[in-house]
Amino acid sequence: MTRISYHASHEQFKPSELLRYVQAAEKAGFTGALSSDHFKPWNEQQGESGFAWSWLGAAMQATQLRFGIVNAPGQRYHPAIIAQAAATLGELFPERFWIALGSGQALNEHITGDRWPSKPERNARLKASADIIRALWKGETVSHDGMVRVDQAKLYTLPKVAPLIVGAAITEETAAWVGSWADALITISHPHEQLKKVVQAFRENGGQGKPMFLKVQLSYASTDEEALAAAHREWRTNIFSSELLADLKFPSQFEAAGKFVQPAEMYDYVRISSDPERHLEWLRQDISLGFDELILHNVNRNQEAFIRVFGEKVLPRLAGASQRAQ
């Protein structure tokens, strides 16, 4: 059965608010959650960026949800430290934690003062980091030289079951590469035909039979007009190609890039509707592609209404759609 999860956006809400939201999401019927992991918000209006790893311990203690996080090891975080952090959560909360690894964005990673590498270099660094993390979880003593340096690292506290390493991919090309080394795929919602191509690329390049996660960007509100206006206000800085999103350093640059985005353009990137039936239709299409987990991110500020309405009108009916898709 497809798991339906709630996205906890640290860029938009204080950690204390997000804690209340994941507790409410669990009561409403969501069975998992995904945490972002930013140092800065995408724009100044979003205005927050709590430390996700501190928050995860509180959120996992306060709920019984299964949690994931999207992380970029290799620059802001050393992979040995990420391996230790994930192992600790895995030991505390057995089989309730997974980690998605991506090549990162300059917005968060440039703060170290190190050079921001090219995409091929970042991919190589990501793969090396994933290998280091896996070896440490096996209890090995690890040394490594290159873009990531490790000197005889060994973890002494290990979970009984290692967390799943999920590869983050937006494009078909990256999805194909991720299929060769990751335990699973996470991608974001695209138009159905484009999403189908991402899934196919992953499956045909080593991902067949591996789990797939989909982060669904949506805007739900009481009217279509409100849903559109809120999506444009909160998320217009996030709709650009991965090349641009990866290389900008400051929220002000994202705001400049989003200055001329018109509200109607948001429909190509965010599922905007006040009708739960329309959202249900979209999500059923996702389930038909074989996704094991759908992570719903309501990109506007009205989280309480979203959690309540989807808990009442969407989640119960998705269970039946999931069973039929198996």
Helix content: 40-55%
Q: Given the C-alpha coordinates, what overall shape results? A: globular
Strands in their spatial order, largest beta sheet: 1-2-3-4-7-8-9-11
**Structural classification:** alpha/beta
CATH topology term: TIM Barrel
Q: What kind of sheet is the major sheet? A: 8 strands, parallel, barrel
CATH architecture: Alpha-Beta Barrel
Number of DSSP E strands: 11
Note the topology.
Blueprint: E1 3-8, H1 15-28, E2 32-35, H2 52-62, E3 66-71, H3 79-92, E4 97-101, H4 106-109, H5 119-137, E5 142-144, E6 150-153, E7 164-168, H6 172-179, E8 184-188, H7 192-207, E9 212-219, H8 224-235, H9 242-247, H10 251-258, E10 271-272, H11 276-288, E11 293-298, H12 303-313, H13 315-325
Parallel strand pairs: 1-2, 1-11, 2-3, 3-4, 4-7, 7-8, 8-9, 9-10, 9-11
Antiparallel strand pairs: 5-6
Helix pairs in contact: 1-2, 1-12, 3-5, 6-7, 11-13
In words, what does this structure look like?
The protein is of the alpha/beta class. It is built from 13 helices and eleven strands. Strands 1-2-3-4-7-8-9-11 form an eight-stranded parallel β-barrel, surrounded by seven helices. Helix 11 runs parallel beside helix 13 (315-325). The chain is globular. The termini are close together.
Could you write a compact summary of the structure shown?
The chain is an alpha/beta fold. It has 13 helices and 11 strands.
Write a concise keyword list for the protein shown above.
13 helices; single chain; globular; eight-stranded parallel β-barrel; TIM Barrel; 45% helix; two-stranded antiparallel ribbon; alpha/beta; 326 residues; 11 strands
